[in-house]
Design a protein that fits this description.
heterodimer, A: about 350 residues, Cytochrome-c3 Hydrogenase, chain B, three-stranded antiparallel sheet, globular, B: about 150 residues, alpha/beta, Rossmann fold, five-stranded parallel sheet
């Protein structure tokens, strides 16, 4: 049959975000996918000219509303490195706690949407029900559900008191129990396996050559996790990257599911590491940043890089953000050819696309 | 009788469509959270649809930029009359934290008429549900005017 072009997006029921793919199909088989980006481009890197470097934290948090905490951590760490600020140990540990809570809620959100993409709505609802507990923790500790806004340059602005810590631990126990209950459904159910196993295969070599990031990379067997750089509070914690070797959509889902359990463990470890006595939350910041700095952190979707250049003024000269979904688009384009048209939503979702990160 | 049945059920069971118009995802995931078990607006008859031709109410999150303003206008034009538009979050109202960025046009009302603005960055699910209820009052008026 002749080639037909089917548009996918920008408004599509499966994705909450606008991405546009032109799918070139022969019969039901997709031969090529051509992405068209730019629907969420706001140009916020250029906002450095209009906002000072303290206000930019709020802008960086809104690069992506799902992993906002980690963007803010990365931005503040870059500025802190440039200015030589020593962040108090308590603040470092607290940043890890909120970062891992964000990772958990991001992965659960994705698992839910993924279940919805292959039509398993009951699982979607179950997972989002569990996720609400994490958002409750965010709201109770920081005052907001999604964008917690706890970072300031030099530390954090909120503390956890002992009652809150006990409550978080008891909530985590419930979350862990509920996750264990649905674990066999997420990983072994016939419906899930039929739609994910063998779909969108990315081999180890492809993942490495195309520069995939995060769970997409680890789902193909590459043991790479920026948290192993032990930045901030992660140097106090003990963990190993989660790796699966199959390289298909199922493996990527399994990596994320196991990472949620890993994050629960990391939050527990971090709570135990909150220093007793030392109540210093943020270091004093004097003057303006000058020079260049570069920082890599691990987002739920993979490696995120911030580069900042400043020349001693209130406003920064340049900020450059490289986000994981941008790195994961070339692997996605390698996965889509020769799949069935009905599998395209599942494969597109399997890289956990965050378009607002990518286009900023 | 058939007409009055349609008139009543239109306002009592609104079908909503959500369009992310350059938002940071914060509001989008809160809109989705409204549909999941803790808030569960489906018990009030609110159904989330993906096709603008089926929708009564359009929920828009995020700022309008130069690329997606045409998409937004197109979606709005495809919805059948009567219809209501709800702009969610600070970005939907004015452009929010991004209003000075070069690619941002501003709030949703720069492109299409808006009935209700929901404040917050991101707006909480409670606020979104409240906004939808307010929007439905206006929607009902429009239904009655249309006869």
């Amino acid at each position: 049959m002749a080639r037909t072009v089917i548009p996918f997006g920008p408004q599509h029921p499966v994705l909450p975000e606008p991405i546009h793919l032109k799918l070139v199909v022969e019969d039901e088989i997709v031969k090529e996918a051509v992405p068209a980006l730019g629907y969420v481009h706001r140009g916020l890197e250029m906002l450095v000219a209009k906002r000072d470097y303290h206000q930019m934290i709020q802008v960086c948090e809104r690069v992506c509303g799902i992993c906002s905490m980690i963007h803010a951590v990365c931005y503040s760490q870059t500025i802190e490195e440039m200015m030589g600020i020593e962040v108090p140990k308590r603040a470092q540990v607290l940043r890890v706690i909120w970062s891992e809570l964000h990772r958990m809620h991001s992965h659960l959100l994705w698992l839910g949407l993924f279940a919805d993409a292959f039509g398993f709505e009951a699982l979607f609802m179950q997972i989002w029900k569990i996720r609400e507990r994490i958002l409750d923790i965010n709201e109770a500790t920081a005052g907001n559900r999604v964008i917690v806004s706890v970072n300031v340059i030099g530390g954090v602005r909120a503390d956890l008191n002992p009652e809150q810590r006990d409550w978080i631990e008891s909530e985590l126990k419930i979350i862990e129990k509920e996750l264990k209950e649905i674990q066999s459904t997420v990983l072994n159910d016939y419906t899930v396996k039929a739609r994910t196993v063998g779909k969108g295969i990315l081999t180890y070599e492809q993942a490495w050559e195309l520069g995939a990031a995060g769970p997409t990379l680890r789902g193909s067997g590459v043991k790479s996790d920026m948290r192993m750089l032990k930045y901030g509070g992660y140097k106090l914690l003990d963990f190993e990257p989660v790796v699966e070797t199959a390289g298909d959509s199922w493996a990527r889902a399994a990596v994320r599911f196991r990472e949620v359990l890993q994050s629960i463990d990391l939050v527990r470890q971090a709570i135990a590491k909150i220093p007793r006595g030392d109540r210093d939350l943020a270091a004093k910041v004097k003057g303006n940043p000058e020079g260049e700095a570069f920082m890599r952190v691990e987002q739920p979707r993979g490696e995120c890089v911030y580069y900042i250049k400043a020349s001693g003024k209130k406003n920064l000269d340049r900020m450059r953000i490289r986000t994981p979904t941008f790195a994961n688009v070339p692997p996605l384009l390698a996965m889509v050819p020769n799949c069935e048209l009905a599998d395209v939503p599942v494969i597109v979702l399997s890289i956990d696309p965050c378009i607002s990160c990518t286009e900023r | 009788m058939f007409k009055s049945l349609i008139k009543n059920s239109r306002a009592k069971s609104p079908w909503i469509m959500h369009f992310d118009c350059g938002s940071c995802n914060g509001c989008d995931i809160e809109v989705l959270a409204c549909l999941t078990p803790l808030y569960d607006v489906e018990r009030f008859g609110v159904v989330n649809v993906g096709n603008p031709k089926h929708a009564d109410v359009l929920l828009v999150t995020g700022t309008v930029n130069h690329r997606n303003k045409k998409v937004l206008k197109n979606l709005y034009d495809q919805m059948p009359e009567p219809k209501a538009v709800i702009a969610i979050g600070a970005c939907g109202a004015t452009g929010g934290v991004f209003r000075d960025a070069y690619n941002v046009v501003g709030g949703v009302d720069k492109v299409i008429p808006v009935d209700v603005y929901v404040p917050g960055c991101p707006a909480k699910p409670e606020a979104i549900i409240d906004g939808v209820v307010e929007g439905l009052k206006k929607f009902q008026q429009k239904v009655e005017q249309a006869g």
